[in-house]
Amino acid sequence: MRRLTIALALGVSMAGGATASAETPMAIETPIIIGQSYALPSNVMGQTRQINVWLPPGYERSGQTYPVLYVLDGGQDQDFHHISGIAQLGTIVGTTRDVIVVGIASMDRRNELALPTENPELIARYPTQGQSERFRRFIWQELQPFIASQFRTNGEEALMGESLAGLFVVETFLKEPQMFDAYVAVSPSLWWDDGKLARQSGAHLRDHSNDPRTLILTLGDEGEEMQAPMDVLTANLRDHALPNTKWDFTPRPTESHATIYHGAALDAFRRLYAMPEPQTAP
Where is the signal peptide (predicted)? Predict the structure, then answer.
């Protein structure tokens, strides 16, 4: 587009070099605004973090409050755009409730999203790994208060992530369940540290309160290394069921690790943010 504008300004035809007529319209270039990006200083992380926010159409005029979906790996070159696109589509066609989407950009994924490992091979390969607890404190102590102070939120919060970010979602659900009302873990990398988190999930679940929460788990056709720890986790969820915890696991055998996320995220939106049923007159 920029090249075309320059060519027209010089009176040169892109097709064959002929002089453009005086009636040739000039293309006007304007930016497309998807959302707003914030540079948030973090004392917990010791660095400034990029936070991307998408607001529902009509937010400025509505005066309403909204639920918030926090998306891990939420950078502009990561998963922010395709997840906020799902939110926008639901708003346009009226299939899901309006929601604020907050993308948390990742900088060092194994440092931020993985719990500490005792596997020497993983330690050697990823020497900065294992600081998920610190990243969780950043979200809890700094990011969530920032979002609550800047936007009209209604207190309904969810956390979504895929792959290593899905591992972080499961760890947060198990260890700090009060942080969010709903958790969406797509193809979580439960194989990390030889499946230790899944094996320990029963002990964590015994400490859970009976507050209402939702956990959505899904996995594609991704081999035994991914499936085996998921089977352990779901068995512990069945064995330690809490009446107010709604959880389910949806296998997606036609999807791979590379293809599963968008469709799984769409399904999660339809469940978490379903439009209320219209009330009939008595």
Answer: 1-22
